[in-house]
Design a protein that fits this description.
The complex is a heterotrimer. Chain A is mainly alpha-helical. Chain A has a single domain, classed as ABC transporter involved in vitamin B12 uptake, BtuC (Orthogonal Bundle), CATH 1.10.3470. In chain A, 73% of the residues lie in helices and 3% in strands. Chain A has 11 helices and 4 strands. The longest helix of chain A is centred in the first third of the chain and has 31 residues. The termini of chain A are far apart. Chain B has 14 helices and no strands. Chain B is mainly α. Chain B has 2 domains: 72 residues, no CATH class; 207 residues, no CATH class. By secondary structure, chain C is of the alpha/beta class. Chain C folds into 2 domains: 217 residues, 3-Layer(aba) Sandwich (Rossmann fold), CATH 3.40.50.2300; 128 residues, 3-Layer(aba) Sandwich (Rossmann fold), CATH 3.40.50.2300. In chain C, strand 10, helix 9 and strand 11 form a beta-alpha-beta unit. About 8% of the residues of chain C have low confidence. The chains are: A mainly alpha, B mainly alpha, C alpha/beta.
Chain lengths: 292, 350, 404
């Protein structure tokens, strides 16, 4: 029984990181219908920034956390301005290919600059482990789960209750009409990217606490899995992304727990395919009707 | 303005191309077997051929059909392993290799149907993701299938070794020729126009009575088939197969070729498939920056010319000859009213 | 602007195409059919091929640096019989197709022998090309059994040698060690499924454990790029093995070690040579008592110290590891053999010359002052017979304890 419980906790922890990243994916998709492939790589950049600040510049971890989040936010906005905004009227395919290009660009730049090997990121946040009913739960696990839930609630509030959130919903509904209504579409989209990327920055900090390594390709698999989570939960839906993230994390833990760990990635993608075929909109997604 | 040229009659047009292609094959083959072109260069030329098949076949799905499959390397892997296993089992015979290539293509096409029918009901992004997932699953299966089967089939991470090295320049480029010919003729037919209409506007195409699922599957399967053939050639070229060679990166590399050349331009795919394979060999000192430049080029091309360098322009030798003949004829009666414009559809679009 | 840019890009593409076609059609006259012609002259050309860029670049760069260091030292001391050794270095990006291309290009440039390839898969692809040419080659890092020996047809590739251990050798060694020195009764393994090295070592370890009567209670895999191993480790923890075996590379091993202690695994960690370097990736407390086998023990002798000093002066400490040390040895073994072939007055590039080099590697490397062992002798599969160094993590430092 305790084994089941600890596997569940394992699943929740890795799931909470997927969830946090999936929320970013979902937000961006919700507003400009773009699968931001570079999202996972923004996390990689965040991890490298943290490493640079702590190891190379020997500055305190608190500063590293702040700088990592700021760097990710800026990077997200810059990518949107430089690469995605010129393509706002272009076919979706071009936008998707650009996103893939940006993702590879970031990975390869990191590899060029820092080498292919992993860098060890020292612990940024430390704290005591939690004991629930004799079960040992790591501090980072608890922290990640709490942060993800808070982020989800905060974002839902932002989107549902604030003026900016209203603008975001309007832009995602119909960009042209929103513009006619006096909404600044460009700044709304920039804001969305800023929020999404800041979440990636937080994700990168939590990630480096749980798995203290920075490597050029660390974002790609992570991004893909988070993306599967976003699709599973219903892309465009914030609570959906959260549910999807936890579902993927727990599914992975279950597969490993029953001794099929080598098939783990296969199972994740098989879930994705099954969901796409039978319920393409995911658990919480809305169906978008396409017009001619 | 699209006008059918009647200056060079139809059978002759094919004949010219076939004769020139055969002459090219003959000359190159003589140079290679005679040793004038060293093993290194012939090896590079063979990989260029394989890249061209991959790019042209992906162009079928991306350029003509307007979908974005991100698992092209998965089809290549299926074809490669199928061909390799057949070649290993029945090495020696002359017909083994062509049969193995065919089988590789067919198995890949089968996977194309399996993935295609459910996948193609989905739109754009979802299809991209689904094929991406498929590519990843193929890799996991190739790595771990032996444990399930209980005997050595793919040999997992260690890789399938000692595959007879049967890929030659001649076979590769015959396959290149067949690929281009088949895809070209499909695209010039009624089916091709149906496929193009799906790219232009799926809903409008559907409302015109085009069975979009059928044509999407058709495009997808043809694309998968030739990717499988390319996989078989690849297996016979390097003699060892490893699942990690067919990852997401490989799919992206093929996609870069198509995008750069021009989505919907076979000429563009051939050109960029060749250049992107040959260029890194020429610029070996530049290796470090290769992937950075690739990704940068991808982004820059998308921003400034989203249809790729060639757009949908397709080179046609006969079209060129037509123009030349017209120019010669037109020299006499210049301004004589009737200037016949022979333009390919792509140009008309621009 | 747009138009200009697209035109410029088209031009680049076309120029590239012509450049490509040009070189295709006109191979340099020196290249190709007659390597002997190119190889003669005042230098002896030696190829180095490996993954110097890409995902596995850290291994390829170490090998390149190690081998280059030896050859430069040799050249500074007068080279081989008055001839300088010229390095023909090509990158293969970790891709088998590129590896073959790189090898064929090196052959065109007239190499007489090859140091490389780096990854096992790439090396096997190169062996397929090199065996028919009987090209002497020595790898510093390709550990798969199949590099020198084809089990399907029971043939040894007589031209291929290595200075590193094989996968099965290490797996068996550590099983023996666990049995004899750690008196382990139960063992568990966690390995990277996409890595032929990890799978090869793991298979041999498990087979040997079974033969020795150690019960393998669990065997867990993970995918390349994974960072969360807790689910697998929780399962392992529930079976409470005496030892946990890591047949992976040090970066993953570091994460696994940390997480294993987190989920409460008390077992002693044992590893193969890929573990060397782990001290940077996990805490001293988590690693205390961990042992692994290594072909190279840092700072264990004066020769090793001299090597480390020279290496650090030239390349820094980032890439100094067993790959660079084994590559240094590989270059030494090869250059010694070239010396013998030169002394015999043979012409570079001829069949006799190649065979002489191969024979010399096999039979006349025993007295070399190599740094990872006392000279090289090779077994019937061309694998080196050298003692294993057992390294132990003491207070976060990888310490040489004994040869086993």
């Amino acid at each position: 029984m305790s084994l089941v419980f600890s596997q569940l906790i394992n699943g929740l922890q890795s799931g909470s990181i997927y969830a946090l990243i999936a929320i970013g994916y979902s937000m961006v998709y919700g507003i400009i219908l773009l699968l931001n492939f570079a999202h996972g790589d923004i996390i990689m950049v965040g991890a490298y920034v943290a490493w640079l600040v702590v190891v190379n510049l020997s500055l305190p971890p608190a500063l590293a956390i702040a700088l990592a989040i700021i760097a990710c936010t800026l990077l997200g906005v810059v990518i949107e301005k430089v690469a995605y905004s010129p393509l706002r009227k272009a076919p979706r395919l071009s936008l998707l290919i650009t996103a893939i290009g940006i993702s590879f660009l970031l990975e390869n730049l990191a590899q060029l600059k820092f080498g292919a090997g992993a860098k060890n990121v020292p612990a940024l946040i430390t704290g005591p482990a939690l004991d629930i009913g004799g079960q040992h739960i790591g501090f980072t696990a608890v922290l990640t789960i709490i942060v993800s839930v808070v982020a989800m609630i905060g974002l839902t509030f932002l989107i549902r209750k604030t003026k900016m959130g209203k603008a975001m919903r309007a832009v995602s509904e119909d960009m042209g009409t929103a513009q006619l209504m006096g909404i600044n579409v460009n700044s709304t989209i920039s804001f969305t990217f800023a929020v999404g990327s800041a979440l990636a920055g937080i994700g990168s900090v939590l990630y480096s606490c749980a798995y203290p390594q920075a490597a050029p390709t660390m974002g790609s698999m992570l991004g893909l899995k988070a993306f599967v989570a976003a699709v599973l939960g219903g892309i465009g839906s914030i609570p959906g992304a959260m549910i999807g993230g936890f579902a993927i994390g727990i599914a992975e833990a279950i597969v490993s727990a029953i001794g099929l760990s080598v098939w783990k990635d296969g199972v994740v993608f098989a879930i994705l395919i099954i969901v796409l075929i039978f319920k393409p909109t995911g658990i919480m997604g809305k169906k978008i009707n396409e017009k001619v | 303005m699209i006008k059918k040229s009647t200056i060079i009659p139809m059978p002759l047009r094919y004949l010219i191309n076939i004769v020139l292609f055969a002459a090219f094959l003959f000359v190159m083959n003589t140079l290679i077997t005679g040793g004038t072109i060293s093993k290194y260069y012939s090896g590079v030329i063979s990989s260029i051929g394989i890249s061209i098949i991959l790019a042209v076949s992906l162009n079928m799905a991306t350029g003509y059909l307007g979908q974005l499959p991100l698992g092209h390397a998965g089809f290549m892997a299926v074809g490669a392993y199928t061909s390799a296993l057949i070649m290993k089992a029945a090495a020696g015979s002359l017909i083994t290799f062509p049969l193995a290539l065919l089988a590789g293509g067919l198995v890949a096409a089968l996977f194309g149907i399996l993935i295609g029918i459910p996948a193609l009901k989905l739109k754009g992004d979802y299809l991209a993701i689904l094929t991406l997932g498929f590519g990843q699953i193929i890799m996991v299966v190739l790595l771990n299938i032996d444990d399930v089967l209980g005997f050595k089939l793919t040999r997992g991470a260690a890789g399938l070794q000692k595959i007879p090295k049967t890929t030659t320049f001649l076979i590769t480029f015959i396959c290149v020729g067949i690929t281009c010919f088949v895809i070209h003729t499909i695209m010039k037919s009624r089916h091709g126009r149906a496929i193009l209409s799906i790219r232009e506007n799926e809903i409008a195409a559907e409302s015109c009575g085009i069975n979009t699922t059928y044509y999407k599957t058709l495009g997808f399967v043809v694309s998968a088939f030739f990717a499988g053939v390319a996989g078989g050639l690849y297996a016979g070229n390097i003699g060892i197969l490893n699942p990690s060679a067919f990852g997401f990166m490989k799919s992206i590399e093929i996609l870069v070729m198509v995008v750069l050349g021009g989505m919907g331009s076979m000429f563009g795919s051939v050109l960029s498939g060749g250049v992107l394979t040959a260029l890194p060999e020429l610029l070996r000192d530049f290796d470090k920056y290769r992937m950075v430049v690739y990704s940068l080029v991808l982004v820059v091309v998308m921003i400034f010319k989203p249809t790729g360098l060639m757009g949908t322009y397709d080179f046609s030798l006969n079209g060129l000859l037509d123009k030349l003949i017209l120019r010669l004829k037109g020299g006499k009666g210049d301004g004589g009213g009737k200037a016949v414009l022979v333009e390919k559809e792509g140009k008309a679009n621009e | 602007m747009k138009k200009f840019l697209s035109i410029a890009l088209v031009l680049v593409l076309i120029v590239g195409c012509f450049a490509a076609c040009g070189s295709k059609a006109k191979p340099e006259p020196t290249a190709g059919a007659t390597p002997s012609a190119a190889a003669s002259g005042d230098t002896i050309k030696v190829g180095i091929i490996g993954c110097q860029t890409g995902e596995y670049a850290q291994y390829g760069v170490s090998v390149m640096n190690g081998a280059t260091l030896y050859i430069e030292q040799l050249n500074a001391n007068g080279g081989i019989g008055g001839k300088q050794v010229e390095i023909v270095n090509y990158d293969n990006k970790g891709d088998s197709q590129e590896a073959i291309n790189a090898f064929n290009l090196a052959v065109d440039k007239g190499i007489t022998a090859l140091i490389g390839d780096v990854l096992s898969g790439n090396t096997m692809a190169v062996v397929g090309e090199a065996a028919p040419l009987n090209m002497p080659m020595i790898t510093a890092s390709a550990t798969a059994d199949g590099v020198t020996y084809d089990s399907e047809s029971d043939t040894v590739y007589s031209n291929v040698f290595r200075t590193c251990f094989t996968d099965p050798f290490q797996g068996e060694k550590m099983a023996n060690y666990a049995n004899e020195k750690l008196s382990a009764k139960t063992a568990a393994v966690i390995y990277e499924t996409g890595n032929d090295y990890a799978v090869g070592v793991k298979d041999a370890f498990i087979a040997k454990c079974e033969a020795l009567g150690i019960e393998v209670v669990d065997e867990e895999g993970y995918a390349t790029g994974d960072v969360d191993f807790k689910s697998q480790l929780t399962t392992i923890a529930s079976k409470n093995p005496d030892v946990l075996f890591f047949p992976n590379y040090y970066e993953d091993d570091g994460l696994i070690a940390t997480q294993a202690r987190e989920v409460g695994i008390k077992a002693t960690f044992i590893g193969s040579d890929g573990m060397s370097g782990i001290s940077k990736y996990a805490s001293a407390a988590d690693l205390e008592g961990t042992v692994y086998c290594a072909g190279y023990a840092p700072a264990s002798s004066d020769a090793v110290k001299a090597f480390e000093e020279a290496y650090t002066a030239k390349y820094g400490t980032d890439t100094l590891n067993m790959f660079s040390a084994n590559a240094y040895d590989a270059a030494m073994v090869l250059c010694n053999a070239l010396q013998i072939a030169e002394d015999a007055g043979l012409t570079a590039g001829t069949d006799e010359y190649k065979q002489a080099v191969i024979d010399a590697i096999r039979d006349k490397s025993a007295d070399l002052e190599s740094i990872t062992c006392n000279g090289y002798t090779f077994d019937e599969h061309n694998n080196p017979v050298k003692a294993t160094n057992i390294m132990k993590l003491v207070g976060g430092v990888e310490t040489f304890t004994e040869t086993y």
